[in-house]
Automatic annotation (TrEMBL), chain A:
Coiled-coil zones: 51-81
Origin superkingdom: Eukaryota
Role played: Enhances GTPase-activating protein (GAP) activity of regulator of G protein signaling (RGS) proteins, such as RGS7 and RGS9, hence involved in the termination of the signaling initiated by the G protein coupled receptors (GPCRs) by accelerating the GTP hydrolysis on the G-alpha subunits, thereby promoting their inactivation. Increases RGS7 GTPase-activating protein (GAP) activity, thereby regulating mood and cognition. Increases RGS9 GTPase-activating protein (GAP) activity, hence contributes to the deactivation of G protein signaling initiated by D(2) dopamine receptors.
GO biological process: dark adaptation; G protein-coupled dopamine receptor signaling pathway; light adaption
Gene: GNB5
Family statement drawn from the similarity comment of this UniProt entry: Belongs to the WD repeat G protein beta family.
Entry annotated with the keyword Repeat: yes
Organism phylogeny: Eukaryota, Metazoa, Chordata, Craniata, Vertebrata
Keyword hit for Coiled coil: yes
PROSITE patterns, alphabetized: WD_REPEATS_1, WD_REPEATS_2, WD_REPEATS_REGION
UniProt keyword terms in alphabetical order: Coiled coil, Repeat, Transducer, WD repeat
This protein's name: Guanine nucleotide-binding protein subunit beta-5
Automatic annotation (TrEMBL), chain B:
Protein name, UniProt field: Regulator of G protein signaling 6
Pfam family for this entry, one: G-gamma
Subcellular location: Cell membrane; Cytoplasm, Cytosol; Membrane
Taxonomic source organism: Pan paniscus (Pygmy chimpanzee)
Organism placement in taxonomy: Eukaryota, Metazoa, Chordata, Craniata, Vertebrata
GO molecular function: GTPase activator activity; GTPase activity
Length: 395, 432
């Protein structure tokens, strides 16, 4: 007779996979469970996974970043301005203020053009949002928001509505009516809701959808009619300060810039980030697509503007000068993409030759920071708004 | 920004000649002339235009790092006016937000000193009167503090005192500017949170401790910065892996492409190539816009339609011409489908389902009146999507049709007589 030891096996349904198996006792966070042998093994390896520390993951990410940089550097065979040497230099530029719009009682924070090439909407710190016919300098509509610091405003593609928001954490849409008896504020529609200030908003190519960026670190796409959230975009590590939609007819992407020094390109359909760029040394205040949609420019507190190409997945040019020590608050391209206009916190606007990387002109005129700048839809002029309470149209 | 200025300042003390100047009866210690500053800026920051250097100098002055010794207005001029550097104690990067009590003490102190040149300016006298009314009850305390400060000052060396007095005055010029001057201490509210001094501890300029500290009326933005979690890093790793696999273009190709695009469009850029007949903003004549609104496209505009398929789709008139061409070929359903899907994406959410059904019936359902030609794979996907009825139902189909039109119909349109005639600006009678 040999001694045989028998292992008593409890049969039953496993607490994890619910299959009928031989079970073993397992302790998880001081609670006793019964797992089958397969699940026990899985749990053991998961435990290992849990122990994969934050540090080890971070180092894996770092090494991948290094590898990515290596791969990209292989394709960096020449600089843009070198290739651009063969391009004819631009002549002397004489750009002057052609219109000055006075009427805001406090700092102008944001502005946008209407598709009709002459109307603009602007918003300021005192809560006022004004619609002007900038050609005649007449004010056509004015509405007072219930909050101060209206940092974002946009004109609807149809020209029949405007959107704005700021410290109220919301984006509201106001239909524009020409009936003098109607109070604009009465028809206000609250569309977006964020958990921090609204820093930027833009209509997509329809009056029915709005894209917003907020100090809560996210961007979001909303249906105007219902106020429903269609898609949200998470990924920035800090406040998102600006956004711009890709100019293509079939495009579904946009770029955003934030206080985490990153510029990120998003797919509007899936909510995923498709590309990211992190070469700025400080907050990115403004991003704008190059007219072909293949590249975009950014302006930052580090006193530089940079051009990033989406196909090369890299920064391709830096626009900076030793004498420029104040941050760039706002950038936009001329129609052909040859000129980049940038408004700075030192009250000036610098005009850059995009291809050659040199500065073409410096424009004085504002008496305080330039906070916003946009080129008109047909490229005939651009408008700048400033903390000196005025807007100027230059050509 | 402040960091950059601070760095500059450190360099400067080494570079610009600071002298003591003899003038009339007294010596003016530790000054620099405006011209010297402008020269230094131009040399060390490679500025070509003196106007720029003056502007930059003025800004540095306005921020409070240098100041004219005999003026309250903080600007800089390119001449022999004297300027002095501000003491690091008073630099804006120390995040000063001086209380009105400190300002009251300062103004009070000034009135106690009997020197003619230290008399209060009009706006300062007004401010003092206002503060006296506001702080009526505390005035004794303020007065005492002012007296104490005067005593401390008297103990100092005469030259040192002159310098300190002027620096103190400049400090207040920044924080309580002359009416009509820009207040450079104003901050962009979005950046307020990340000041070096987030608790906004009120440091008193004169070391005065107050029991009643008024709350700062700045909008309180308390947002905990998200800590990166393991999940975040795992997402990042997935993202990075995808990026590494991405096919990218060489810089040379990219540069060529950007240059080509710009060169092609330069003639359309009104800020580079003057617009015909004139730029409305410059000439005050809206002729240019009137022409664009008319149904008669200019030669230049027609040429642009040939640049890319997107161009003709963007331009209303171009689309119409293209549509007319397709109708003449009995193949307009493709373009109409594409336009319908674009329109679908612009609809409010509540109308989407209905439109999806309409588009399906018109273009894709068996026996549809404007049947479009899709390969079986796309058709499969689309018919599946229709069941869900979202805005992106026809995305796949639209892409196919777009490519089809681009390579086929668009190319033929550009070669067509209709287009060529427009391009050559030949007059043609349109048969309606």
């Amino acid at each position: 007779m040999c001694d045989q030891t028998f292992l008593v096996n409890v049969f039953g349904s496993c607490d994890k996979c619910f299959k009928q198996r031989a079970l073993r006792p397992v302790f998880k966070k001081s609670q006793q469970l019964s797992y089958c042998s397969t699940c026990t093994e899985i749990m053991a390896t998961e435990g290992l996974h849990e122990n994969e520390t934050l540090a080890s993951l971070k180092s894996e990410a770092e090494s991948l970043k290094g590898k990515l940089e290596e791969e990209r550097a292989k394709l960096h065979d020449v600089e843009l301005h070198q290739v651009a040497e063969r391009v004819e230099a631009l002549g002397q530029f004489v750009m002057k203020t052609r219109r000055t719009l006075k009427g805001h009682g406090n700092k102008v924070l944001c502005m946008d053009w209407c598709k009709d090439k002459r109307r603009i909407v602007s918003s300021s710190q005192d809560g006022k949002v004004i619609v002007w016919d900038s050609f005649t300098t007449n004010k056509e509509h004015a509405v007072t928001m219930p909050c101060t610091w209206v940092m974002a405003c946009a004109y609807a593609p149809s020209g029949c509505a405007i959107a704005c928001g700021g410290l109220d954490n919301k984006c509201s849409v106001y239909p524009l009516t020409f009936d003098k008896n109607e109070n604009m504020a009465a028809k206000k529609k609250s569309v977006a809701m964020h958990t921090n200030y609204l820093s930027a908003c833009s209509f997509t190519n329809s009056d029915m959808q709005i894209l917003t960026a907020s100090g809560d670190g996210t961007c979001a796409l909303w249906d105007v009619e219902s106020g429903q959230l269609l898609q949200s975009f998470h990924g920035h590590g800090a406040d998102v300060l600006c956004l711009d939609l890709a100019p293509s007819e079939t495009g579904n992407t946009f770029v955003s810039g934030g206080c985490d020094k990153k510029a990120m390109v998003w797919d509007m359909r899936s909510g995923q980030c498709v590309q990211a760029f992190e070469t700025h040394e400080s907050d990115i205040n403004s991003v704008r697509y190059y007219p072909s949609g293949d590249a975009f420019a950014s302006g930052s507190d580090d006193a530089t503007c940079r051009l990033y190409d989406l196909r090369a997945d890299r920064e391709v040019a830096i626009y900076s000068k030793e004498s420029i020590i104040f941050g760039a608050s706002s950038v936009d391209f001329s129609l052909s993409g040859r000129l980049l206009f940038a408004g700075y916190n030192d009250y000036t606007i610098n005009v850059w030759d995009v291809l050659k990387g040199s500065r073409v002109s410096i424009l004085f005129g504002h008496e305080n920071r330039v906070s916003t700048l946009r080129v008109s839809p047909d490229g005939t002029a651009f408008c700048s708004g400033s903390w000196d309470h005025t807007l100027r149209v230059w050509a | 920004i402040e960091d950059i200025i601070t760095k500059m300042q450190d360099d400067k003390t080494g570079g610009v000649p600071i002298r003591t100047v003899k003038s009339f009866l007294s010596k003016i210690p530790s000054v620099v002339t405006g011209t010297d500053i402008v020269q230094w800026l131009m040399k060390n920051l490679s500025i070509e235009d003196p106007v720029e250097a003056i502007h930059l100098g003025s800004l540095i002055a306005a921020q409070g790092y240098i100041f004219p010794i005999s003026d309250h207005v903080l600007t800089m001029k390119d001449d022999g006016t004297f300027y002095r550097f501000q003491a690091p104690y008073f630099w804006p990067s120390n995040c000063w937000e001086p209380e009105n009590t400190d300002y009251a003490i300062y103004l009070c102190k000034r009135t106690m000193q009997n020197k003619a040149r230290l008399e209060l300016a009009d706006y300062e006298a007004e401010n003092l009167a206002r503060l006296q009314r506001a702080f009526a009850r505390k005035w004794e305390f303020i007065f005492m503090q002012a007296e104490a400060q005067v005593k401390i000052d008297r103990k100092k060396d005469k030259t040192e005192r002159k310098i300190l007095d002027s620096q103190e005055r400049a400090f207040w010029d920044v924080h309580r500017p002359v009416p009509g001057c820009v207040n450079t201490t104003e901050m962009d509210i979005r950046k307020c949170r990340r000041l070096k001094n987030p608790q906004k501890v009120k440091k008193s300029v004169y070391g005065v401790t107050e029991e009643s500290q008024a709350q700062s009326p700045v909008h309180v933005l308390s947002q905990p910065i998200r800590k990166t979690t393991k999940e975040d890093i795992r997402k990042q790793i997935t993202f990075l892996n995808a990026q590494i696999d991405r096919h990218c273009l060489k810089m040379s190709k990219v540069a060529e492409s950007l240059i080509a695009y710009t060169e092609q469009y330069v003639e359309y850029d009104p800020l580079i190539t003057p617009a015909e007949p004139s730029n409305p903003w410059i000439s005050d004549d809206v002729a240019l816009w009137d022409i664009e609104m008319s149904k008669e496209p200019s030669q230049q505009r027609v040429k642009r339609w040939g640049f890319s398929f997107d161009e003709i789709l963007k331009d209303q008139v171009g689309r119409d011409q293209f549509l007319r061409f397709l109708e003449s070929e009995f193949s307009s359903e493709n373009l109409r489908f594409w336009l319908a899907v674009q329109d679908l994406k612009k609809q409010p959410l509540q109308d989407v389902a209905k439109r999806v059904e309409e588009i399906w019936q018109e273009f894709l359902a068996p026996g549809a009146p404007s049947a479009i030609n899709l390969d079986s794979h796309s058709y499969e996907i689309t018919s599946q999507n229709v069941k869900d009825g979202g805005r992106y139902t026809f995305e796949d189909a639209q892409e196919h049709i777009y490519k089809l039109m681009k390579s086929d119909s668009y190319a033929r349109f550009l070669r067509s007589n209709a287009y060529q005639d427009l391009l050559l600006a030949k007059k043609k009678v349109w048969l309606l």
